[in-house]
Amino acid sequence: MNGQTSGEHDLLGRHDVLDLGSLLSEAELAQRDKIREFTERRIKPQIARWFEDAYFPLELVPELGALGVLGMHLDGYGCAGASAVEYGLTAMEIEAGDSGIRTFVSVQGSLAMTAIHRWGSEAQKQRYLPLMARGELIGCFALTEPEAGSDPSAMRTTAVRTADGWRLNGAKRWIGLASVADVAVVWASVPDEGVRGFLVPTSSSGFTAEPITGKLSMRASIQCDVRFDDVELPAEAILPLAQGLRGPFSCLNEARYGIMWGSMGAARDAFEAALGYAAERRPFGSALASYQLTQAKLVDMMLELQKGQLLALHTGRLKDAGTLRPEQISVGKLNNVREALEICHQARSILGGNGITLDYSPLRHANNLESVRTYEGTDEVHTLILGQYLTGHSAFHPS
């Protein structure tokens, strides 16, 4: 026995020791294979150059639309209506290429499209969702602020009623896709009403989006500083069904679910890079893979990959059954990103000095995962969510 599965049902490349792929349906396997082929053909051959050049490949957007992955978990309005597990497998296979590309799919579908689908009017859904599903219109999701990254309850962006609609003022930071988006889902504080959501065309006077430069992570992606200076909006710009933080948090949970799968894709790619390198490299006259310390690292990586994939799959089954709870999403996001980052670091150590170049993927994945670890809830935030679940005491605002 060499620990390899021979069949097409593998989840962890050729080294799915637990044969987790056998837990997938034929439809799920077909979806996985379709996205894996796309990633191998369209993302991996170019990603090192895109990362080095800090270039987000807008040319992929209509292709991703044609693949049916934009808002794929949503029903109707041109969306695929796929299962949670199919969406998770899609996130995993795309992030095996790069976290930045998977982040686009998440911002477009799990955040912007979900906000419109769940909280918008019928007219808003009809206007935006079919175009967004096809990749003909790009959305962004503006929640995080410069002074309140992990605390949206301290939101300073405001929307006030006017004779004709709304006037929006404020600032947001780390807003993915804002400089290339056509519409922004903006969360703002409304006097006497709390947090409300608005659909803001990015062509609006007073809307500005400036890409953040000098990034060491997520370089094949776009994040922006955004300002709203007396942006005038019509009355129908508001998302009528969203009031309070429940609106944006419901979207964040969709994104967090995708992250627990996606991070395992980055980790799997790093593991496979290290495994292949260890088989070919021959220090001191023997294959690097033959040394005990190397094997220990590879085994530890495989164990955490398999556990993380099993956690994601179980969570996906709960989501498809309609029983998934927020704290269970926190388990997956906290564990899988943390372990994926460690896997990438271990993989880089096997590659030695060669591992710090873009010829190999582990350090690029690790750099990206530093951002993935931070957005949609830091480790600390998810730890406190779970701490509150276990103890009944909230430590977010201790007395």
Automatic annotation (TrEMBL):
Pathway membership: Amino-acid metabolism; tryptophan metabolism; Amino-acid metabolism; lysine degradation
Chain coiled-coil ranges: none
Cofactors, names only: FAD
Keyword S-adenosyl-L-methionine: no
EC number: 1.3.8.6
InterPro entries reported in the protein's UniProt record: Acyl-CoA_DH_CS, Acyl-CoA_Oxase/DH_mid-dom, Acyl-CoA_Oxase/DH_mid-dom_sf, AcylCo_DH-like_C, AcylCo_DH/oxidase_C, AcylCoA_DH/ox_N, AcylCoA_DH/ox_N_sf, AcylCoA_DH/oxidase_NM_dom_sf
Keywords: FAD, Flavoprotein, Oxidoreductase, Transit peptide
Database matches in SUPFAM superfamilies: Acyl-CoA dehydrogenase C-terminal domain-like, Acyl-CoA dehydrogenase NM domain-like
Protein's name according to its UniProt entry: glutaryl-CoA dehydrogenase (ETF)
